[in-house]
Prior knowledge:
Chain A is of the alpha/beta class. Chain A contains 11 helices and 21 strands. Chain A has helices at about 35-45, 45-55, 140-145, 145-160, 175-185, 200-205, 220-225, 245-250, 270-280, 290-300, 320-325; strands at about 1-5, 10-15, 25-35, 70, 75-80, 95, 100-105, 105-110, 110-115, 125, 130-135, 165-170, 190-195, 210-215, 235, 255-260, 270, 280-285, 310-315, 335-340, 350.
Amino acid sequence: MRTVVAKSGALRVAELPALEPEAGQVLVRVRSCGICGSDLHSLRHAESVVAMSDAIGSERNFDPDADYMMGHEYCGEVLALGPATESAVGPGDLTVAMPFLIRGATVEAIGFSNRIVGGYAEEMILDAGLCLKVPNGLDAGLASLTEPLAVGLHAVNRSGIERGDAALVLGCGPIGLSLVVWLKARGIGPIVVSDYSPRRRGLAAELGADVVVDPREERPVDAWKRIDGVRPLVVFEAVGVPGMIDEAMRSAPSKARILVVGVCMERDAITPMIGVIKELDMKFAVYYEADEFADTLHAIAEGLIDVAPLVTGRVGLDGVAGAFTALGDPEGQVKVLVDPALTGTEIQPVR
Amino acid sequence: MRTVVAKSGALRVAELPALEPEAGQVLVRVRSCGICGSDLHSLRHAESVVAMSDAIGSERNFDPDADYMMGHEYCGEVLALGPATESAVGPGDLTVAMPFLIRGATVEAIGFSNRIVGGYAEEMILDAGLCLKVPNGLDAGLASLTEPLAVGLHAVNRSGIERGDAALVLGCGPIGLSLVVWLKARGIGPIVVSDYSPRRRGLAAELGADVVVDPREERPVDAWKRIDGVRPLVVFEAVGVPGMIDEAMRSAPSKARILVVGVCMERDAITPMIGVIKELDMKFAVYYEADEFADTLHAIAEGLIDVAPLVTGRVGLDGVAGAFTALGDPEGQVKVLVDPALTGTEIQPVR
C-alpha cells in the first residue's frame, strides 16, 4: 500500500503494509483527497504546529521530525468493515468522514499523524461511526471538497451573518472562496472580495462575489464603502499572514464583526485600542460541527452549491510533492485533488 | 472660574471666564469628578490618543500639545439652564450626564477637549438632554461613580455572561473592580480575580470576588480550574498593558469568551493560531449605552450595588496633579474624587 510520507519539510512516497480495519473501523480505497493550505504550511513550519499544540495544552504528541502522514480532505470507496462493525456505509459505497479516529476515550486527528495513514495514500482507515455515504451519485472528487467547504460553512455560521448584512472577504484561497460560495448561497450581498491574484479574483467572481478588489489598487473596505457602506458588515479574514487581523480591525466600521479563519501560525501584532474604540466583535473559527460537515456533503450532492470551479488539477501520489510546490503560485493551481489511481508526476489540468 | 488644564504631560490650575449656558445646555457647579485611569494614561501618551483617533478616522481634532481639559466622571449641581431650555433637571438638582455635548450634527466629547471644560473645574456646561437627576438623596461623590460603573455594566452586558457561567477578571483597577461589582450583582460565581496589588485584591474580595489571586503565585486560570474548571468561562481583560490579550487567549479554554475592556494604547502581540484552534470569541468594549448609564445611576441610588468601597480619597483642584502621581501606586489610591470645594493639595483619605 503506497502513501505519501512527510519528514523535515520533504515529501516522498513509501510502501506500507496493507491496513486491517479493527472493530469500529472501515477500510477504504482513497478515491480523492484535496491538498489543503494547512498541509503546505505545516510542511514548512511543522515546528510551529508543535509549539501551538504545546501552547494550548493539547496532547497530540505529533513529532514533525519523524515520518508523518497528511491528507484530511478525502473521499474513499469502502473496501471492508472491521469485525462486528456497523456503519452507514458498506462495501462499494463512496464515503466521506470527519478526519478523526476515535479509540476509546482518545480522539486522534487524521492528516497530521505519525501513526495514522492520511488521505495521500492508496488506502486508509476511517471511523465507522463517522462515515457518511456520498449520495446522489456524486463524483468522488467533488465529494472530497466536503471538508474545506464545511470549514467555510462553519465560519459563516459562527459569524452570525444574516441576509441584509454585507460581507468583506479578505483572501481568495480555497477557504476564502468557500466563504464566497456559502455567502452567495445565503443571499448575502454585497460580497466584496480581495486578493492579489487575478486568477483567484476571477474565481471569486465566478463563484458569486459582487466586487473583486486588487488591494494594490483599492483598499478592500473602500470598495465596500463605494458600493454600499451602510449595511452591517462582517469582515472575514481568510489570508492568515501577519498583519491581516490588524488590517481587518482597521478596516472594520464601529460595532462590526470580524471572523478570523485564516490560519496565521506566527506571532502577530494588533492595536487593541482600535478594537476597544470600535467595540469590535472578533471570532476565531476552525473546523466545523458534525452537522455542518453532513450539511455540506448534501449541499454539494444536491447542487445547492456549485463547487466544481474550485478544482483546478488532479495528481497521483508521485506528483504530490510537485503539487505542493505548484500550489505556492497563486496564479497556478487553486485546489488540487490527489487521485491515487493516477500515475506520473504531472498535474492533470481540470479547467 | 478655576479649572485644571493639561499640556504636554503636565497639569496646572488656570482661571477661565465664567461659563454661559447656551440654548439646550445646563450650567452646573461641579460637586465631584472621579479621576480615571485613561486620564492618567492620556497625560503620559497623549500622542497615542491622537494617533488612534487618526487611525479610526475620527474627527476629534484633539491637539495634545495645546491646553486641554479632562474629567468625564462628574456629578454637578445645577446652577442655571440656557435660554428656552427644557431639561429633566432644574436649579439645585444634582445631576450626572454622559460626557458629550451635542451641537447640531456634531457630538463633542467632554473630558479630552481643547475647547470644552471638563469635570476638573469649578463649573462646567452639560447637554440639557443628557442630564439625569440624581435620585434618592444620593451623595454627589457616589453619583460621580456612575460613569466608571456604567463602563463595567456595559462590558458585562456585552460579554453575554449569564448565571451558571464563571468569570475570570484580570486586573483590579477601578474598571476591574466595577466588573466584580456587577458580576456579583448578577449572581455570577465563581468570580476569580487577579492583581499584583494586595490592596486591590483586598478590595476585590470586599466587593464580592470569590477568589483573589496574585499572578506571581498562581496563574489566574489555574485558580479557576482549582475551584471550578467546568462552567463556561468568560475572561475579562481589564489591565490594558501589552501581553494581556495574549495571556487571556492562552488562559481561555476552548470556546471561551474574552471581553477586552482594558485600554492598551500600544501595539500588542497575539498568537492568532491559539484563537483559531480554541475558536475563541473576543469582544472589545468601551463606554456604554444611554440606558446602561441611567441603570447604573439608579442601581447606585437604590443600593442595588455598593460602590462606596471604591472611593479611597478626595482632593481639591490644586491637588489633582499630586493625585495623578499618587494613583500611579496601586498600593495607595484606587478612586480619587475631585471636589472643587476642597482647598490645599493634600488627598483627604476616605477610608
